[in-house]
Design brief:
With 338 residues, the chain is mainly beta. It contains five helices and 22 strands. The chain folds into four domains: 95 residues, Thrombin, subunit H; 78 residues, Phage tail protein beta-alpha-beta fold, CATH 3.55.50; 69 residues; 53 residues, no CATH class. The chain is globular and about 75 Å long. It holds the Pfam family Phage_GPD. This is Phage protein D.
Length: 338
């Protein structure tokens, strides 16, 4: 199979112009607040390439034998021409996801009171011309008060997502708010899963840490009955120092959810899997990845955090970063496998 790529800039196919010049094409698909992006590095030794205008709409795709196995639309944010002396001239073009509208990055000041996660996401999606996609288990979560002071809508949702153990992202023109590691996509349906076996792998690194750094999560909330601030503690693991969430919460329920989400995050901290695979277009951020037949510590189900699709002179490879789902976490000692 032959790896191929396809690039449009403002509707014009420039792929043929790039074939002999391509040094590297890198497309990044990330979970959470981090924006999907693309970087194209081109040989410009004759200094004849003209950088695309900032704000241009760019479509990029990578695949086998002319197919578009993985693709995306981006807005050109910057172009850099560099070189001189013994260093050949190059042109680097960077773009960010076309879904991330300027309005959602605009700073606002607003109080959100007596609402739910579903209602809040719907409201923010509407004013940013996006379609809301909220996980069913999160939509009805009540929010007593959530302040927004000179803060963008995206930052606000990311902060709320961290508190609830969720992910806030903009994908396929949808405002996504789902449980972290749920495997739910922009349409609100399951992303499904992909499987990796030994022959798919160019490189693997698996780090397994069974004992979390912390043994408790503590935070405070306002007791409505007494008007006093109270301490809430969530215990987990086998001892260790306390992790304290400095932000006080309005209710005990909010404190419980935030402490529980942080405890789950800390319990699986350090359980990571990094893979470099022969080009795979079926793996995306937030989906489940099943590793089969590698070794006891690596085998099992993982949650995909980040995917980079890279095309260069050596071919097409897919670089994947994963974390272990607590429910599927295998037993074993602290070790790293490469």
């Amino acid at each position: 199979m032959i790896p191929t790529f396809f690039v449009l800039v403002d509707g014009t196919d420039v792929s043929a112009n790039f074939v002999s010049r391509l040094v590297e094409l890198r497309m990044t698909d990330a979970s959470g607040r981090e924006s999907d992006c693309v970087t194209i590095l081109l040989d410009n030794k004759d200094r004849e390439l003209v950088a695309p205008r900032r704000g241009a709409l760019m479509y990029a795709a990578i695949g086998w034998n002319g197919s578009h196995d993985v693709d995306g639309e981006y807005i050109v944010e910057s172009s850099v021409i560099e070189g001189g002396g013994e260093q050949p001239f190059t042109l680097s073009v960077e773009g960010k996801s076309a879904d991330l509208r300027e309005t959602i990055k605009q700073h606002r000041t607003e109080d959100h009171q007596k609402t739910t996660v579903g209602a809040l996401v719907n409201k923010l999606a509407q004013r940013n011309s996006l379609t809301p996609a909220v996980g069913q288990d999160l939509a009805s979560v009540e929010l007593d008060y959530l302040g927004q002071s000179e803060e963008s809508d995206m930052h606000l949702l990311s902060r709320l997502a961290r508190r609830l153990g969720a992910v806030a992202a903009v994908k396929d023109r949808r405002l996504l708010f789902t449980r972290k590691g749920s495997g739910q996509g922009a349409t609100g349906t399951s992303l499904g899963s992909a499987t990796v076996v030994l022959t798919d792998i160019i490189y693997l690194r698996c780090a397994v840490k069974d004992r979390p750094r912390f043994g408790k999560v503590q935070t405070t909330y306002m007791d409505r009955g007494t008007g006093l601030e109270k301490l809430y503690t969530k215990e987990f693991g086998d001892g260790g120092p306390d992790f304290f969430i400095r932000h006080p919460f309005s209710t005990k329920d909010e404190a419980e959810r935030a402490a529980g989400a942080r405890a789950r995050e800390l319990e699986t901290e350090g359980n990571t899997l990094t893979l470099t695979l022969h080009g795979r277009g079926d793996i995306a951020a937030e989906m489940k990845l099943n590793v089969v037949g590698i070794c006891p510590n690596a085998d099992g189900q993982w949650s995909v955090e980040r995917v980079e699709q890279v095309l260069d002179q050596s071919g097409w490879r897919t670089e994947v970063e994963c974390t272990r789902d607590k429910a599927d976490k295998d037993a074993g000692g602290d070790e790293s496998i490469e």
